[in-house]
Design goal:
By secondary structure, the protein is of the alpha+beta class. The chain is built from 4 helices and 13 strands. It has helices spanning about 5-10, 75-95, 150-165, 190-194, and strands at about 25, 30-35, 35-40, 45-50, 55-60, 65-70, 95-105, 110-115, 115-120, 125-130, 135-140, 145-150, 175. A hairpin with a 2-residue loop joins β8 (about 110-115) and β9 (about 115-120). It is elongated and about 60 Å long. It starts with a helix and ends with a helix.
């Protein structure tokens, strides 16, 4: 069923469970809105994000409420999304975000050199990646830890590093997320002998 038909049929009933809840603002965090630009400052840094004018942000003492200007399909869709973005920004400036990648394979390794992450992953040449602003790398044995206050930037950077050499299903060589499970396949010998 299309979005227009859903809206016509259930329009007045579709509500965002995330959007209608007020967002708690910790004492050490400062939140301000000006011309659709949200600025959130905290102990770990500052984040800015531009929002559309479909949703109105109302700040009260230690909480923030999001309200729709007009109940349309688009504003209802964005209501929960904007609330999730604000929550992630608050969490980022207070705690920060991190992702861990594991490198598996003989001769596969990573090193930091001149603000660049250099990954040797079985190619004829090492792959160099600039450190994006707002992200930091740390290395431990066969793991790369990516940390930052912007959730999207941390996730995007981790995905780019993983894309250098995705894990293959036969020997499991490559770069994978820490808790990622690679479904292994049987090789030719194992298939032929059964």
């Amino acid at each position: 069923m299309s979005a227009a038909k859903l809206s016509a049929r259930f329009g007045k009933f579709i509500m965002s469970r995330i959007g209608k809840n007020s967002i708690k603002i910790p004492k050490e965090v400062d939140v301000s809105f000006e011309n659709g630009l949200a600025t959130i400052k905290g102990p770990k840094g500052e984040l800015k994000r531009k929002f559309g004018n479909e949703i109105v942000f109302e700040k009260k003492d230690d909480s923030l409420e999001l309200k729709m200007k007009k109940s349309t399909l688009q504003s209802r869709a964005l209501w929960g999304t904007y609330a999730a973005h604000i929550k992630n920004m608050i969490k980022g400036v207070v705690e920060g975000f991190s992702k861990k990648l594991i490198i598996e394979g003989v001769g596969y390794r990573a090193e930091l050199r001149d603000k660049k992450l250099i990954v040797s992953a079985g190619y004829s040449h090492p792959v160099a990646m600039e450190t994006p602003e707002g992200v930091s790398f740390s290395l431990e044995k066969n793991a790369i830890k990516i940390e930052g206050i912007d959730k999207e930037l941390v996730g995007e950077t981790a995905a780019k590093i993983r894309a250098i050499r995705k894990p293959e299903p036969y020997k499991g060589k490559g770069i994978r997320y820490e808790n990622e499970i690679i479904r292994r396949k049987a090789g030719k010998k194992a298939v032929g002998s059964s």
